[in-house]
Amino acid sequence: MKNFLKEHGLWVLFAAAVIAVALALLSVFSNTSSPLANAANTIASPFRNAYTSVATWFNDKQRYYKDTSALEAENAQLRQQLADMEADIRQARKDREENARLRRLLDLREQRRDLTSDLEAATVTEHTVTNWTSSLTLNKGTLHGVEVNDCVMDETGAMVGVISETGTNWSTVLTLVDTDTSLGAQVFRSGDLGLAQGNFSLMEKNLLRLDYLPAECELLGGDLVLTSGLGGYYPSGLVIGSVEEVKVDDSGAAPYAILSPAVDFAALTQVFIIKSFDIVP
Fold first, then answer.
1. d(CA 7, CA 205)
2. Are 235 and 227 contacting, i.e. CB atoms less than 8 angstroms apart?
3. Looking at the DSSP assignment, which residues form a beta bridge with residue 151?
4. Mapping DSSP to helix (H, G, I), strand (E, B) and coil, where does residue 244 land?
5. pLDDT tens-digit readout, 203-253
6. Distance from C-alpha of 159 to C-alpha of 262, rounded to nearest angstrom
7. 3-state SS, residue 19
8. 0.90 exceeded by the pTM?
9. Which of 107-116, 139-148, 189-198 is least confident?
């Protein structure tokens, strides 16, 4: 044994050292993981990190998509609610305007019993304005007792024009500014009589003339002009318009006035046809 240790002592010590180091290393690895598992985990770690990052990004995108979809659905619902509210507001405004129009008509009926006994309500279906004419098309005609030369007014008692043509269920109104319109007129303040008629050069400006005035008349801007009712062709007291300007003709002797109609023809949606009226002396 002694000879063995003498001859192989160094190798024994070396082997013992190797074993001790190996045991130490195994001890270290046993506290963490096996070498193969550690190597596998070391290699897999970057992939796990990448997967985690991708999964996190994907989850974020899913949440974003869900939130965006929810917001879009909510916005669509809010837009529909807003559209419904706007429709309700428009209907309320329309109803309010209709009520106001009916109240004005009721007041007119109380004030003008001479002409409201035989009125035909009509809807304006077309507005026609050209270089040669200014007219309205209505949805009432001979079937409803409408005749040529019937007078047309709005709910305030303002003159719109005169029926020029009729069909079974339609009629055409020449407005006050049309060149073929002519009717007796009277200045409310002074009582001066004249003839209100359309004028070619004024029609495009939505104006008309008041001619054949007395030489001594003293019209003022803003004077109210009404239908005179003379001759019994049209009822008296319908508002034609107001004086815009007073002029004299080329001779410098005959005065005339430029009138602005009381009615906005382009805005009319409903009118009233006076099929008959009582002549008031």
1. 136
2. yes
3. 162, 274
4. strand
5. 999 999 999 999 888 889 999 999 998 877 888 889 999 999 999 887 767
6. 8
7. helix
8. no
9. 107-116
Residue 13 scores a pLDDT above 70: no
The domain limits of the chain are: 119-274
Distance of alpha carbon 194 from alpha carbon 211, whole angstroms: 6
Of 137, 144, 187, 190, the closest CA to residue 160 belongs to: 137
DSSP states along 50-98: HHHHHHHHHHHHHHHHHHHHHHHHHHHHHHHHHHHHHHHHHHHHHHHHH
By the 10 Å C-beta count (0-12 exposed, 13-18 middle, 19+ buried), 244 is classed as middle
SS3 274: strand
For residue 106 the two structure tokens come to 């009721």
Split at pLDDT 50, 70, 90, the class of 119 is: confident
Please state which architecture CATH assigns to domain 119-274: Beta Barrel (2.40)
The residue assigned the tokens 């005169």 is 162
Map residue 40 onto helix, strand or coil.
helix
The answer, yes or no, to whether residue 193 has pLDDT greater than 90, is yes
Residue of 280, 245, 241, 281 whose CA lies nearest to 154: 241
Beta carbons within 10 angstroms of residue 147's beta carbon: 13
Q: Return the amino acid letter for 90.
A: R
Name the β-bridge partners of 271.
122
Query: DSSP secondary-structure letter at 135?
Result: E
